[in-house]
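**Fold in tokens:**
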Amino acid sequence: MKQGHPRLAAAIHVVWLAVLLFDCVQLIRGAHTATYSPPPPIQCGIYQNELNSTMTVARVSREDATFSGYYHSAVGDARGRYYLSGHMTQSGAVAWSVAWVNREGGDSKSATTWTGYTTLETGTTLFTTWVLVSADPAQKWNRWSLGADVFQLVQSLAC
């Protein structure tokens, strides 16, 4: 059985441990109480990153801490819009995924996951890192790509 990249796995574990620790500290400090319900860290709207790719959040659910919508990439061979689904914490941690398959572009045999945080003061900026994974056997030397994006809310939408 082929082993994954230990450095990548360790980095992902460190990020999630940091998010968990932050949530625990917030809970201990009393940030989550029954009388105060902060706004969700993600709001419905169109977010744009520095490369002009857009994430349209069309649904936000407080009950199960999820959001969904569509992603349009301004880079690479992606055509059209792609479904996205994500999760969030009340402390501002966010994560979402896109499988690069749709009617316009077909199946690119890859997926991307973004994880990061938003500032709770405004909720309009998302600071993220991403991992793109290719399942295409032709991509022997390029199966993993890593990077970072900053998304800004450019247009609010009604949910």
Remarks:
- The chain is about 15% helix and 45% strand.
- The CA atoms of residues 51 and 117 lie 19 Å apart.
